[in-house]
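Take one protein record:
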Amino acid sequence: MISQLGSILLITALAVAIYGIAASVLGARLQRWEFVASAYRAVLWLFALVTVAALLLVMALVTYDFSIAYVARNTLRGTPLYYRVTALWGSLEGSLLLWQWLLSLFSAAVVFSQGRKIRDLMPYAVAILLTVSAFFLFIMVVPANPFRAQFPVPPDGRGLNPLLLTTSMIFHPVFLYLGFVGFTIPFAFAIGALVTGRLGEEWIVATRRWTLMAWYFLTVGILIGGWWAYTTLGWGGYWAWDPVENASFMPWLMGTAFLHSIMIQEYRQMLKTWNLTLVIMTFMMTLFGTFLTRSGIISSVHAFSNSSLGAYFLLFIGLLLLFSLAALVYRMDDLRGQPELDSMLSRETTFLANNVILVVITLTVFLGTMFPVIAEAVRGVRVSVGAPFFNKVTVPLAYLLLLLMGIGPLIAWRRASWDNLKRNFTYPTLAAAGTALIAALWTRNPYALITFAVCAFVTATIVFEFYKGVYARRKLAPGTSVLRALWTLFTRNRRRYGGFVVHFGVVLTILGIAVSSNFAVEKEVRVTRGETVQVGDYDLRYEGMRAYDEVYREVVWTDFTVMRGGRAIATLSPGKSFHPNEQQPIAQVGIRSTPWEDLYMILGAVEQDGSAATLKILVNPMVMWIWIGGAIITLGALVTVIPGRPTRRSAIAASEATGPAPARTLEYSGSR
């Protein structure tokens, strides 16, 4: 019953999406506003239909309805309830349904929030949103139906991939999808701007918060993915330049470039063509990332390797990219005549350099990710492109990007004088030089010294900017406390000071990455019960083995007493879990985290009687600062998203975005 009803709902949703595309385009072209209103209602109906379909699949997963193939592949009797619910996005078909549900939710939110604004542009934006929905619905109706029935009905299911049975994987895919889907909104409005010729800032104003939210969600998703890799995969690291890791990183890089570039358009009415190109390529990268994980062309612990959807995605990406670039070329004459750079010493120049570096890093990651596939297709030999290639190219660019991150906010718009540069950058430069000299007493590692110096420079610029802001506020209102002045800064300019918080989080994250990458200690040992081994400053005594059965797995733990300076400070229990339908056991990592370093233990093998065990032990310094920096990044992003007190500039921008009311007032009921 659920199988048939779910399939009918998806087919109906596809028909509604196609109808909505036709109604919105015809309504806009013929000025038939009742058609457009009908298209808006189609968006709401689409959300309702997909919501019911998603709930049906969740119900089937929760109730072990093994008559549905997706349920049989992704649940196992005895699986905890929360893992049965999250199995919705545990495999290919369910993840597509989650993607489409999020897109229909966002589309409905856009209709509610923007339906009566920028009326000429909105119908085309809605048509693009419905086109993307129609593609995903077609995929689910034809080659990847999540409600496909199977017969005979098995007595039990296979169960989720054991690597997904972690708290991190409850949230990691959802946040990534929120980010990927969120970038559909600015893309749709950008195409609407190209189609209608309304190429000013109105589409940016209308989608600014959507862009920030998409970037925020994608950032959180990547950070949770790094945490999952570190705590679950059992290899001691958090980033391996895996193709699917790269698939989420590339749209993040392009989205970051777009967020910085639109500031130039807002303040100087420059880079309109560049911004449209960036938002198009950002969205294409989200689709490309989806293609990578669902095409089966790459091998990864993240990917759906048995999928045959690659051709569908490539065709859709190609057609959408061709249409987008054709629209951009068609409007090229209208995009000319923009203001030019007044000086190479200006904030516009630093932001443009920031954009160029981000795009170059994206192209590097893209080429490194796809080169093995291209080489295999051309020569028949799969070539491996690993972390050394990516690090060699991207690390120097990352240092330059970090330096520009400190320079950009402090340099003047249009033209900066040498007096301005001297006043703003003297103290940060001294801080960088002093930090490098102090660090040189501890290490001669050039990468570490550069990292410490650049991080000190950026931190000093942030502190200096906050100092100037607080000083100015207290001078305007004598007697104001420092905390009150800080609060006023944030409430009156959330984007600027929230951006500084984001930059500080990036500094901490890069610091944690640099130190943990360059100063980690690694050792492989074999110990017998009661034996003590030394790794770094730690003494580890093996106490023995214990094993027990859970409903859906068997787990073996090895217990170690951790001592430092002759004193016991912790007990760690690295282990392995064995799952009935998996040939390879899953690592259960033992980690002791402090702000200074992580003690990280991976069990390799253990004797059946527990008399001896083989382990890989790492001491990873300052890893915790990666997660602290990530939390600060997300906090700063939230500050920028929260609506602030309206200013005269924002009121004018909103007025320009809305524009004069048309002769006919558009209502959802279709009345004129």
Q: What stands out?
A: The mean pLDDT is 86. The first strand starts at residue 521 and ends at 528. The CA atoms of residues 57 and 332 lie 46 Å apart.
